[in-house]
Amino acid sequence: MKPLSRALFSLVLSFAFLAPANAYDIIEAVYPTVPETADSPEAFVPEGWAIEVMETGDLNKDKRDDLLLVLKETNPDNMMTNETDSPGMREWDANPRILAVAFALKKGGYKLVIQTNDILPRHDDPCIDDPFGGASIADGAIQIGYHFWANAGSWYTSSTWFTFRYRNGGFFLVAYTNYATKRNTCESWDLKLDYLSRKAEMTVGSFSSDDEEEVKTYSRKLSPDSLVPIEQVSAINGFYPEQTDLAWWGIEEAE
Q: What is the pTM assigned to this prediction?
């Protein structure tokens, strides 16, 4: 028995067990500055970029529809082609992304409140699927998803969702979920963190069995630490709640 490695189980933004991005000659991202105000969603888009996701909804409780944008560069130099004898997909899009959030103004148009260049991952390896899992506005909150699926180099899969709410003048992480599996052993780990109620729950089971006796749920209280602002959640540097480490729960995985 051995503890589950945090790098394999938690947020699928750090792929130390896969080839580095520069092995595929992916150029370094250059991020433009998004305009501070705009009359329309399209007016926020810098030259050479495009809207990949656009969502609207009231985020600051002023009864006006605010704006969430995922912007993606359209640089053809980031359209990658893999070598024929190399593992993974033949072609993939490695263009970088920007997350932008703007509040609707009473007089019309929008005012930018967030531009973060490192919360959304690039698809930098042909042996994995695009790790970006989506972004939306739901129930007055921002939800951002990631997923991990490798066709070489790992048995692990993972699906992760962050939920951010606007409070005290900024967006803060209020919930985190991660469902991870290990394909060769059929183990599964379902983690739910609710930072507002301070509840942490981990359910351990097997995705190959319906036997309820094989499922065990652990519950613990989170410490009353201050909430993490969205600016500190990074796909580049990685963001790993300590509860993603099985050692925090006293759990071990099978060999």
A: 0.88
H/E/C letters for each residue in 111-137?
Answer: EEEEEECCCCCCCCCCCECCCEEEEEE
Rg of the chain taking only CA atoms, in angstroms = 20
Query: In the β-sheet with 216-221, what is the strand arrangement from edge to edge?
Result: 132-138, 141-149, 156-167, 170-182, 187-194, 199-206, 216-221
- How far apart are alpha carbons 82 and 123 in whole angstroms? 13
pLDDT in tens, 123-152: 988 888 999 999 999 999 999 999 998 887
Which residues are 161's β-sheet partners? 145, 177
Identify the CA nearest to 147 among candidates 161, 133, 135, 134: 133
- Residue from 107, 231, 222 nearest 164 by CA: 231
Calculate ∠ Cα 11-17-23, nearest 5°: 110
Angle at 112 between CA 108 and CA 116, to 5 degrees: 155
